[in-house]
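hi! just following up on the protien thing from before. the input was this:
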Amino acid sequence: MKLVIIFVQKEDSQKLLRALSQENLSATAMESEGGFLQRKNVTILMALQEEKIVLAKKIIKDVCQSHTEQVDTSFAAGDIESVGLPTQTDIQVGGATILELEVAEVTKI
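and the predicted 3d structure came back as:
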């Protein structure tokens, strides 16, 4: 058994939770916030048997696509224009980050 922790953009979370539920994969979702862009995310927790992890990852990959977005970099270094750096830059956002942790025991009460 593994604890699977998935970090996704809030915009993708409801579609992902529905897709997981359609495959009878239980999940718990909590709102969170990214540290770099300060955007709303959702952290999804799942306790899965090893054989279900491949299915869960396929669903996550299908639903959570990364894309390029322009972001304001002026928050990162104060007066960034005075040193000749651009105030806008392209970054990859979206997709998902997945952590897998071994679970010694699961108890449902």
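Strands lie at 2-9, 28-33, 40-48, 66-72, 88-94, 96-102.
Residues 2-65+95-102 form a domain with the Alpha-Beta Plaits fold (CATH 3.30.70.120).
cheers
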